[in-house]
Amino acid sequence: MKKKVCILGCLLISSTFGGGLAQKSIANPGVASSKTQLADILPVAADLSNVVLTLRDLPPGFTEASSLGSLKNLFQNSDFKPASVFAYQKVDDKQFQLLIGFTIQLSDPMQQAKFDKGIREGSAAKELSKNLNSNSKSLKSNKEWQLTNPTALTLQDNTGELSSGWRSQGKLENIPINLDMVMFRRGKIGGFMLILYYDGTKPTITISDAARKLDSGMMQLKPDLTKPQ
Q1: Residues 6+ apart with CB under 8 A from 201
Q2: Bridge partner list, 186
Q3: Residue 184: predicted pLDDT
């Protein structure tokens, strides 16, 4: 299972950041596009490296994901430069969860407006599911993993100034799985997070709870950047 988690983590990472989400849903600096974009990424002015979920924020049993190193290496050769990134996993006889997230700084109103549009339209969630379906075909062990189109997922109230959640469902080694995603903005900081877990099991931390913890951390650590816009 640990080997499977590593492979799955790399697949999620490559689909999210290297397989088209960052390129298609997040505009590169100075590149015009007529399609809906998640955000225009400019050089990060503030240090947001500590604006992450930590193990202290998570229930017992989580550890840093073995695929986090691959994630960091991918960013070194990518135009997409998040302000912070984190990945954790929980793997035991009763529970499997993989959590991946990042934050970005939205420096100007245009960036914020495009990010907000992505939240409302769910373009990032749709692109991620599409890329995962496409990329999984290249891995024999994931042939049967075909995610459904994302459906709306209810979040806790007051998550960011604006937020949306989605769920896609599929199979991993013939076991039904859920992929829950959330995207939100608080002031000049945007967040994106996903949690993968077996269908029929109750995750020890929900995507809604994880988003609220990250949102609270943003406000505590960066009050100047999280004022209402």
Answers
A1: 94, 95, 96
A2: 189
A3: 94
